[in-house]
Amino acid sequence: MKKLLSKIELKNIAGSTIFERGVKYFQNGAVGNITMVSKKYTANVFGTEKYIATYNPENKNFNCNCPYDAFCKHEVAFGLKLIEQYSNLQKTSESFDTFFDAIDNSLKLQFLEKIISENSNLRTEFRKFHKFETNQFEDIEIEDIAEVLYDKIDFYDAEDIYDRASNDHYSEPYEDAIEIFEEELVEFEEEFKQYIKKESYNNILKYYLGVLLGLIKSETTTMAEFAGEPMEFIYDIEKVFLRSIKSLDDENKKQILNLFFEEIDDIEELKKWYFYTDFFNIYLENKELALLLKNKLKKYVYKKDILNLLAKIEKKLGNTESVKKLAEENPDNYKLSVDALYILKKEKIYDKINEILLRLFRTENDITELKYFITPELGEEKYKLFLEKYLLKCKDFSSYKKLRKFINNETAKSIRDKIGRDSFKHQINLHEKWYDDILQFIKKNLKNHYFNYDNYLKDIEQIYPTEAWNIHRKYVEKISCERNRKTYAEIARILKRMLKLKSIETQMIIKELYNHVPRLPALKDEFRKAKIV
Hints:
Blueprint: H1 7-14, H2 16-27, E1 35-37, E2 40-46, E3 50-56, E4 61-64, H3 73-101, H4 105-118, H5 120-134, H6 142-154, H7 158-167, H8 172-197, H9 201-218, H10 231-246, H11 250-265, H12 268-272, H13 277-281, H14 287-297, H15 304-317, H16 320-329, H17 334-347, H18 350-360, H19 380-394, H20 397-404, H21 409-418, H22 422-432, H23 435-445, H24 454-457, H25 465-479, H26 485-501, H27 503-514, H28 521-529
Antiparallel strand pairs: 1-2, 2-3, 3-4
């Protein structure tokens, strides 16, 4: 064991005030028994709540899980108790090896049997040690794994964590929730990795499904929901799981797939869960495995994600007609329809593309992908129809330019007026050089308190200098009664623009504002910064 910090060093790190508070904690017996965990000394420190303090003798680092983000009084108290016990700890550490070596092995075994018989946790650990070292695995029961996990994380009061996190803007309580949640799952991850190491693939699958089921059951009733998504943890386990399954030969992959469906058929919660896509992707690597997966999935076609996966399998198998049939039988499934569109475009079956596009434009899905299928080959009328629909829904300027070749000014303005987004209308007006429309739009909206006229006016200032100057002047008059530096900076910026439009008239306004009574030093300062005085 390396040398511990001295009291002087503790005081230098903590500062006098925190050190004195730590001394009081230590003298009042706030520090519990010191134990060694993972080569670190640790102890409970009892303050307003129970906190855990640790010390790493390798790098002489202290740590405490209290909210204080610097060296705290709990660490000071813990450090003082360590220093007090250091001599005994060092002597014990140095002398025990010699003492232990001299003891007869039969006596060691007697002691081991005694402490294991008295401690259920040690019995569990010994079973694990024996199981993994000898490869004598018992068959895992998915529900048992799920139950153990659920019991562990259901202990925490999720409602209390939620309330404290809300009151504290999701800072300390939220971080605490994540930390505790992760700590509870660590042993599951470690045990899972042991199954991976020993290549017990049936148990790998069952353990994975067991942890998944435990998280599903606890998702809405425990602190799991406050640690981000509860499934974040399962992502890490899933990566290891997928890598291990992917490394198997085809026969073993078939065995795992058969076992997978046997298990989920018996567990309703797993059957409802949409989490299997990445696992299934392993079975798309060759046609034989893909065909096996297809046969397994047939009875789950009522699930949207499964339908999409079946289409993916059919594409892998080269069954384009089956993909089109799936799309036809499930017209409300957007993904299937898009899959069919890609095939139809390749086959140049444009009447069918027209039919599907008409249906998809009526949905509330993200239709940006449909742009790829809107081509002149659809026929001029359908091409114009879909360009306009896509333009109005996606505010896509390239679609407007394509459509403009087929329509006159009156129709173009009619389409522009249907668009809800003012910035996009402005883009069209600029493109068409409908500058008068821009000016009228600005004048119409000037009374709107939230209207940012400057974004629109800057594009036509040089075309309508007098109109632009008057609009700027009215805006300056409107905000000049406000008394804050941000407004003064805004006034200075606008006046600088006005100088380029009407110099003499603007200088008169600047002079009047600059000499305004009561005098405003902040306003004058902003005018000087803008170099308009």
